[in-house]
Design brief:
globular, alpha+beta, 12 strands, 388 residues
Length: 388
């Protein structure tokens, strides 16, 4: 229980106290003036917390599978008849407000399989903990990252980790995303700071393999009043496999947005933007052609990415927005891949700009204020929005 009841900021305070230089006692036998923290106990606390989180995730997924197997839609039956006439049962008693059938469905079915825990949520990344004091300060060195991986092995969860699991070195601090790394299947990967000073998901990960809200509140997003006022997270997508559909649905529209001035006043601004969409259709079971299936054998592989599949959270319509300028249109056309649009007559300046922005053509932000299940909104992020 210590890992849950102990405030997270105390880990960093105790780690700093441990790393402080200590003067040896001038007189043998005297008690030290500074109490040295028991870092072994803190490390074991973090390991125990990580094991609990992994156990809760396994329990939540097991309960969800059991609920899915036991959930059977009710079959409507024909009404009883007597001599060709329909017999309707009636009762002089009014239904109770708390009756199981007065609200149309049983309350038992609504609560069955509902796993709730403040530490684990289904379809969200778990936040695992390790305790490794960093002599370099807030930025973890390569040796500190290797020690974090060793702590996961000592906790006995190395074989249970999945791609996308977030590991937090609580000894670094609790501000922003300090000490947070993502497991890529073999190693821990640092966060990327190109488009956010707090850190975002690294471009090594394919965002289609995770639900759009998978890292919500696990990897914190910073708010930028100019570039990212809504605090929307970065995702990395390759939309070129749907380039033809995006080209067919492309429109130039006017959009009204509310911005905040440095003095705090709100202004309504009308600007132009390019908007298009493509559809990711769920796989259909051959035995039940009218029912969607999410089984392992019917998952949709991510195009040109071996071993990864599209998460069902992306099924439906994906709406893509880009700047309404000529540069924004050229960037959007380049993201759609060759063949989606007629070739452009580029000059030397546009070719240099295109080569510079080649690495950012997979970068988008999820517009959380517009997105909903079955309809995900994303906005293209260009090279000029980099902060580092």
């Amino acid at each position: 229980m210590r890992g849950i009841s102990m405030p997270t900021h105390q880990y960093a305070r105790l780690a700093d106290a441990y790393l402080q230089p200590r003067i040896p006692n001038p007189v043998p036998g005297d008690r030290p003036k500074v109490q040295i923290p028991d870092i072994l106990s803190l490390a074991m606390t973090a390991r125990a917390y990580t094991r609990v989180v992994m156990r809760l995730r396994a329990q939540a997924e097991s309960d969800a599978r059991a609920f899915a197997r036991s959930h059977v839609s009710p079959v409507s039956s024909r009404p009883a008849t007597r001599d060709g006439q329909v017999v309707r049962s009636s009762s002089s008693r009014t239904p109770s407000p708390t009756s199981l059938y007065s609200h149309g469905k049983s309350s038992v079915s609504s609560t069955r399989g509902a796993f709730r825990s403040p530490l684990v949520r289904l379809h969200r990344a778990p936040l695992l903990r390790v305790f490794v004091p960093s002599p370099e300060g807030e930025w973890l060195s390569d040796s500190s990252v290797v020690e974090c991986e060793a702590e996961l092995k000592r906790a006995g969860v190395l074989k249970l980790l999945r791609v996308g699991d977030v590991v937090w070195d609580v000894a670094v601090g609790d501000e922003g995303n300090l000490g947070r790394m993502v497991w890529d299947g073999s190693y821990l990967v640092d966060l990327d700071h190109k488009y956010s000073r707090m850190g975002e998901l690294s471009p090594y990960f394919h965002s289609l393999a995770f639900s759009p809200s998978y890292f919500h509140r696990v990897i914190r997003t910073g708010v930028n009043t100019v570039l990212n006022p809504g605090g929307n997270p970065i995702v990395y997508l390759d939309v070129s496999p749907w380039g033809q559909e995006l080209a067919a649905n492309l429109q130039l529209l006017q959009d009204r947005a509310t911005t905040t001035t440095p003095h705090g006043t709100l202004h309504s601004v009308v600007h132009w933007l390019h908007r298009s969409s493509f559809t990711i259709r769920p796989p259909v079971s051959p035995h039940h052609p009218h029912a969607y299936s999410h089984s392992q054998n019917l998952r949709i592989p991510i195009p040109s990415v071996a071993g990864f599949f599209i998460d069902p959270g992306w099924y439906g319509t994906v709406i893509v927005e880009a700047e309404g300028t000529n540069e924004g249109l050229a960037d959007f056309q380049a993201r759609c891949g060759p063949g989606a649009f007629p070739p452009r007559a580029d000059n030397v300046t546009s070719k240099m700009r295109s080569e510079k922005e080649r690495g950012s053509r997979r970068v988008y932000r999820v517009l959380r204020e517009k997105s909903r299940p079955g309809e995900i909104w994303i906005r293209a992020v260009r090279e000029k929005e980099r902060v580092m």
